[in-house]
Amino acid sequence: MIESIEHNDIEEKIDRYVNGQLSEKEIEELWIELIQDEYHLDYLKSVANLKEAVKNKKKQKEKAQVRRYWSYSAAAVIIVLVTVLSVFNIPGLDSSASVEPIASIELDYYRSADGTLSDNGEDKQVISDAIALANTGKFDQAVSLLNTELEKASDIEWKAELNLNLGSLYYNEGSYQKSTEYFQNVIAAKESVNVLVLEKAYWYLGNAYFQLDRLSQAQQNIQSAYDLNGAYRRVAKSYLDALATAK
Known about the structure:
The chain has eleven helices and no strands. It has 247 residues and is mostly helical. The radius of gyration is 19 Å and the shape is elongated. The two termini are 36 Å apart. 29% of the residues are buried.
């Protein structure tokens, strides 16, 4: 409970910081905390970039011709982020980039629902093998491996995990429309799949629709991820607030 309160407190400070509501002393104290806290540095990156992403979405929708520059406070956030995040070697952040939906889905060795490495049998190895292929640029082979496994799979949860990973591979390849098919396959079996797998499917599907500028569908699926009250709840709330202003 105490840890949860502390997390909420620092995230509230980050939200206030991005909105220019902290004093110089409070900003200094916040950065002392953030330099030692990689998780919340990543959270700050998401919030800061999301704020700019929504501005860009609104400009596109209104067909504005005049380019809008960030305020001094928002620019300061990114300047400091670039400096500090480079120490932690967090990829994907650029002072000139505007990260909108998540840039890519992290692919790693198969992990169980509690986040630990799985040793639940050889069948799980196929995901690790596919990810290893994808990480070395062999996308077609990775997809073929997972699709072959999917064709012979009968267990609903296993099929959901395969669909989730196939969707992730296509997302990272930039094939966002194709990725939605696999995420939707997971959601179609929502009564029978692990809640963490389902939450990821909603979250990734929402981001895929965000990439496709289908904001209503993005909002709907991110809302579903938020409603599951799991690992993505806080960041999903930030996206929902931002998407609500983009319409």
